[in-house]
Amino acid sequence: MNFLRNEEPYLRVTEYLKYKNSKRKENEKWNISAMKPMPSFLYANKKVDVGGTVSLLTGSSVAKRGVTNFDGNSLVKGRVFVANGITFKCAIDDASKPEQDIAYSIAKVPNTLMQSMVVVKQKNEILIELPICDILGATESGNHYFKLGSFALLEDDTITEIEIQYPEGAKITLEDGKALFASARLSGFATYQKR
Questions:
Q1: Residue 103 phi, psi (nearest 5)
Q2: Origin, by domain of life (predicted)?
Q3: For FRET with 35, which of 15, 140, 144, 157 sits at 20 to 30 Å CA-CA?
């Protein structure tokens, strides 16, 4: 392989996956030689309630363009994702609208939501935990994503949780017929099978 043809992010992710694979049990190792990291995004859009902890993914989530690219709440076997950034958007719109028809935005985020947390977990391990106000603050400098200080690995065939954790007693007043919609997106590299 001519490494000079690959850009630094690709090389970093490749080395990171090799390192993570070396720490796995022998019978759980990935076939790294057949994995090709490619720039990708994971996302989940959902109409959400306000208060407590709200999951953007469930076991009954179905991969559907514009709604989520998770099938259920995990990645398919052999496809892992290395996240290097996250963004969050929301909208208040007609409750009857489907998630894919919503114009998600970083503008006019309700204060209660700004003070909430976005948490991404696998195997009861927190991979990402950030206040929404800090994620949105990254956009003030022209970035679309909050850049993570280190990679977050979402393993294949493993239940993934993406949650909004509201402050205690959180409330958002909505007009009749309106609902709150939330969108969480992860940027990074997904692995695909090489030819």
A1: -90, 90
A2: Bacteria
A3: 144
